[in-house]
Design a protein that fits this description.
The protein is mainly alpha-helical and about 160 residues long. Helices cover about 55% and strands about 10% of the residues. The protein has 5 helices and 2 strands, in the order H-H-H-H-E-E-H. The radius of gyration is 21 Å and the shape is elongated. The termini are far apart.
């Protein structure tokens, strides 16, 4: 199984009346999708906004292919290389924010990614479910650990009595 890491933060808007750029940046940071290296580009929020705008246009025009962004397009929007964007995409997919999709355009197969929901809210609800499921599984492990420790202590006590 692939090793997954959820890196949630408590980043908050810096102003009382944040604009869409600041809110998108806060969301990217809170979900752990921001660059982790110092000096990295901080414009990945633009990809989130573009995915949303493309999904809206796709639904309006009734053309699903309009919602799809290729990795190259995502990298250009974020101001990073295609290879670096591939590294970041993994985290977006792990949280179920985006989904990989293919379509045929002018006889070519285009592989890209689209928002994993009809709206941003819908996509983030899916991410919340993913994180909640992860936390629920961790809680089951905690209960199992607690039970295991208890059984081991009882077993050890029984051995000492013999």
């Amino acid at each position: 199984m692939a090793r997954r890491a959820y890196y949630l933060t408590n980043h908050e808007p810096s102003s009382m009346d944040p604009d869409s750029r600041e809110l998108a940046t806060v969301i990217i940071n809170r979900m752990g999708l921001s660059p982790r290296k110092s000096g990295s580009t901080a414009t990945k929020y633009k990809v989130l906004i573009e995915l949303y705008e493309r999904m809206k246009l796709s639904n309006k025009e009734k053309k699903p292919e309009l919602a799809v962004l290729t990795v190259e397009e995502m990298g250009n929007i974020a101001g990073i290389t295609r290879q670096t964007m591939y590294d970041y995409i993994k985290r977006w997919i792990d949280l179920d924010l985006i989904a990989k999709t293919t379509y045929i355009y002018e006889g070519k197969v285009i592989i890209g990614y689209k928002l994993n929901g009809v709206t941003l809210e819908n996509a983030f609800e899916k991410a919340a479910v993913k994180v909640r499921n992860h936390m629920d599984q961790t809680l089951r492990y905690v209960k199992e650990l607690q039970n295991s420790i208890k059984k081991e202590k009882i077993s050890e006590t029984m051995k000492q009595k013999d």
